[in-house]
Amino acid sequence: MQGFQLFEHAATVPTRSYNTKEWQRGYRSLKEEHNYWIEEIEGEIPTELNGTLFRNGPGLLDINGERVQHPFDGDGMISAIAFHNGRAHYRNRFVKTEGYLAEQKAGKILYRGVFGTQKSGGWLANAFDTRIKNIANTQVLYWGGKLLALWEAAEPHRLDPKTLETLGLEYFDGELSKGAPFAAHPWIDPSSKFDDGKPCLVNFSIKAGLSFTISIYELDLDGKIIRHHDYPVPGFAFIHDFAITPNYCIFFQNPVAFNPLPFLAGLRSAGECIKFRPDQPTKVLIIPRDPAIKSKPQVLETPSGFVFHHANAFEQDGEIVLDSICYDSLPAVESGADYRETDFDVIAPGQLWRFRMNLESGTVDRELLEARCCEFPFVHPAKAGRQHRYVYLAAAHAESGNAPHQAIIKVDVESGERKLCSFAPDGYVSEPVFVPRAKASESGLYTEVQGAEDDGWLIAVVFDVKRDRSFTAIVDAKDLSIVAKLHLKHHIPYGLHGSFTPAVFE
Ligand code: CO
Predict the structure, then answer these.
(1) Centre of ligand 1 from the C-alpha of residue 151, in Å
(2) 45-63, pLDDT tens digit by residue?
(3) What is the 124 CA–ligand 1 centroid distance (Å)?
């Protein structure tokens, strides 16, 4: 068994399983757009696995050789891997944003990036230029017959799901205004109590200004915004992700301060003006989803920490239980520093924590679920907002310390059992997307768990330094054995988020 051997091999890799020079090679631009059937396959693609995995991430780490200062500033590139009757097709295309087209034409950086990229010309060229490029690089989702590339600080781009051609900006029939933010972390509620049990999409936005506003948007199966409500948030709000339950939206307001002066003066990017405040608590904002409830958000506090991503939340006996990846402090974006020279040993690792918010007493308890360095959590889609048993994450090969992600970990939050599938020392792993084995419902969504919650596959893109290109790994979600490796003809720069639809777009 190929999978078993690969797994066994990984168990013998020494603790320091990565090599910084090799890891850095995954941060090169992929300039070409491809379209081909994947021929080089180890193992077999399960014939029950049918549908399309869409992934988004920065495809360009330079503009004509001029380096982007941080990968979060790189232009969004969509990969679509379509699985059909045991075969797989790969296609990638850049999101043809206004900024992408202008910079490709000019052959140089024209916009400032949130995380450090300054346009050429130094201080004077950047001073008072607060225009930021909508880079559409964070998430991609097929919803209501539309494929949407998401970036949290501006409106979505709509793409053709088959050709990945950029069709334009999406305003949801005018419900979103020009330039309005729309977060990159929507949840699908598999059974919305506000829609007679039909699924809906829940997303949010953070609008900055003199004060901050959280907007909550809920969309029906046709992609129409059917609920929209706004809440003012006191203080600076840097919120990337949120969680839902049947009744609530939950936000972590991380303890950070923002000094806009160096940004306005052109000296620093917006991301570099954010300072983590370890002396301040994290605020937990709990907002009812029912627009008829006109109460203020309930605000709870928990000790300082920084959260980008939540795994899932659910309601239980008057409490909201939330599993999240928490860092002791915010990895700082330092001016002029080269992200490729990251010293993993001096940065706090992300770890999986469980928070319990008691709505009656207003208290928050927290407990460490998994100490291993991990990120990009994923649960069964039908468990969104419901009690889950398994969390799947990208993780470090070693049990302790901070390191690049080279493994996939499965955490059973009921029994405490863990399973690991490591690609060390040669592989660097992206977010593992869980795909159930059972067929989707009529709506084309996985709204019910049929059989066991872990009956399905994890699909991840892995950068393979030995081949100097990437492969798509299909991993059995039960025992974390490798089912197949689909070797691509090129590398895919380290990506951010992805989603799976049972619709086949090959
Ligand atoms: Co994210």
Answers:
(1) 10
(2) 999 999 999 999 999 999 9
(3) 33
Q: How far is the CA of 506 from the centre of ligand 1 (A)?
A: 26
Give per-residue pLDDT as tens, 406-461. Answer: 999 999 999 999 999 999 999 999 999 999 999 999 999 999 999 999 999 999 99
Q: Tell me how far the alpha carbon of residue 349 lies from the centroid of ligand 1, in angstroms.
A: 16
Q: Give, as one character, the DSSP assignment of residue 47.
A: T
Among candidate residues 497, 500, 492, the one with its CA nearest the CA of residue 474: 500
**Mean per-residue pLDDT for 132-145?**
94
Measured in Å, residue 338 CA sits from the centre of ligand 1 at 21
Q: How many angstroms separate the CA atoms of 21 and 480, rounded?
A: 28
C-alpha 309 – ligand 1 centre gap (Å): 6
Point out the least confidently predicted range of 294-298, 310-314, 433-437. 294-298
Query: With pLDDT > 90 as the criterion, what percentage of the chain qualifies?
Result: 76
Q: Long-range pairs for 358-366 at CB < 8 Å and ≥24 separation?
A: 358/318, 358/319, 359/286, 359/298, 359/318, 359/319, 359/320, 360/318, 362/298, 362/300, 363/300, 364/284, 364/300, 364/301, 364/302, 366/302, 366/303
Residues 155, 99: Cα–Cα separation, whole Å: 14
How many angstroms is it from 387 CA to the middle of ligand 1?
22
CA of 15 to the centre of ligand 1 (A): 28
Spacing, Cα 122 to ligand 1 middle (Å): 30
> Measured in angstroms, how far is the CA atom of residue 361 from the centroid of ligand 1?
31
The sheet with strand 407-412 has its strands ordered as 374-378, 390-395, 407-412, 418-422
Q: What is the mean pLDDT of residues 34-47?
A: 98
With a threshold of 0.85, does the pTM exceed it? yes
C-alpha 73 – ligand 1 centre gap (Å): 14
**What is the 432 CA–ligand 1 centroid distance (Å)?**
13
**Backbone torsions φ then ψ of 285, nearest 5 degrees:** -100, 125
